[in-house]
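Weekly structure sync, notes
Attendees: PL (lead), two postdocs, one rotation student
Agenda item 3: pending single-chain targets
PL asked that the sequence for the first pending target be pasted directly into the notes so everyone works from the same version. It is reproduced below exactly as submitted, 231 residues in total.
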Amino acid sequence: MDHSEAIRLMAAEKYLLDELDAELREGFEEHFFECQECALDVRSGTAFFEHSKVLLARPAMDPLREFVPVPSPVPRPGPRWLRPALLVPIFAVLLAVIGYQNLITFPKMTGSLAAGKSPELLASASLINVTRGNGNQPVVAARSGQPFLLYVDVTPDSRFSSYQAELLGPAGNSEWSLAIPAEKAKDTLPIRVPPPRDGAGMYTLVIHGVNASDQAGAEVGRYPFELKIEN
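Predicted structure, written out during the meeting:
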């Protein structure tokens, strides 16, 4: 008899209750001499029966005057991570994470959500009719960590089914890109710009046309501006 069969047959319980036939009893005895878990089950059950006999042999007691201590259950082998020596540091880590979330993460999230629902004045700049080299590049003075607005016009072109706006940083790297449906390009576009990763410097908003095959086509606009950060 192997361990899985012993568990399926509840062999330890039936062995203690003398409900196994001779063949199964012999097979289970051979098994639990080699299986620590089943041997522990048998020893625990035997101890329970012996203790029960002692209690049953006692005269009836007055529940208000006597108390019979119940033996602590014999611990059974289990997963290593469930043992007390490992549960204590695991719970300590969980408490530290919960404390960090309650004291730092959640208040920040709550503050951010509240700020998103409150009206505020955002820095802005109009990029309409702005071209490189005309000496009249707009300046955006935004607070540190705050978004700002850019207003831009896109000249409609029947060759394009949509447009794509891309913000280039001071080093020419792409900060982000934004898809613009063709119907939106008929009016002045207010683009909310999140705080750039590169901070203050010269930036360029580039508009590309996108053709029917979803491929970026020709550049239809390039709008430089300077970003200044205020504390």
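Discussion points:
- Strands lie at 123-126, 139-143, 148-152, 162-168, 174-181, 189-193, 201-210, 216-230.
- The helical segments are 3-9, 11-16, 22-32, 36-57, 84-117.
Action: rotation student to compare against the earlier draft before next sync.
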